[in-house]
Amino acid sequence: MKKVEPLEAILWSIALPGFSQLLSGSIIKGLFFVSLEFIINVNSHFNKGIMLSFLGKTAEAANVIDYQWLMFYPCLYMFAMWDAFKMAQDKEKRYQYIPFAFGAYFVTIGLMYSPLVYVNGIFIGPVFLPMIFLIPGLGIGFIIQYLIIKFKKLEN
Fold first, then answer.
1. 55 touches 70 (CB < 8 A)
2. What are the angstrom distances between the C-alpha of 81 and each of 14, 78, 98?
3. What gap in Å lies between CA 61 and CA 82, rounded to an integer?
4. Nearest 5°: phi and psi at 72?
5. What keywords tag this UniProt record (predicted)?
6. Left (φ > 0), alpha (ψ -120 to 50) or beta: where does 13 sit?
7. Tens-digit pLDDT profile for residues 15-66
């Protein structure tokens, strides 16, 4: 199994879930993640939604997206990133999954609220609002991870 750096693992996983696993030699797991990403992406029409969102047509993107399929995407995406990051670590750190899990939760919440959110009359849409929600999700996850580690040290 090839060892990759943690940052490299995260960046390849951002590019496509499963790429980092393939790079590190976990072929079955990598192909599984890539296949799931492909299935979810095609059935949710996510690439079309991304393209329309970046062209400023967020309302059209919201109409193209199949939310029932896209709801699976945040958890797959964040789990594949966590798995890649974990595999790249020399020594697994305790509670390192917490920011990834909270990131997935918050992206999912952002996706659920995306049809309703307008800022100054501008529709944010199903691509950008979940991306924005990732930031507080990771932040809260890191804070909770820090607090758990701190309280565990105080107990000992």
1. no
2. 7, 5, 12
3. 28
4. -75, -25
5. Membrane, Transmembrane, Transmembrane helix
6. alpha
7. 999 999 999 999 999 999 999 999 999 999 999 999 999 999 999 999 999 9
**Longest Cα–Cα distance in the chain:** 55
Whether 5 and 20 have beta carbons less than 8 Å apart is answered as: no
Mean pLDDT of 73-89: 93
14 close to 81: Cβ distance less than 8 angstroms = yes
Q: Which residue has the tokens 């976990």?
A: 26
Nearest to 101 by CA among 142, 69, 149, 132: 142
Q: Compute the residue count for the chain.
A: 156
What is the helix (H) or strand (E) element at residue 47, kind and residue range? helix 46-54
Residue-wise pLDDT for 82-126, tens only, equals: 999 999 987 778 899 999 999 999 999 999 999 998 888 889 999
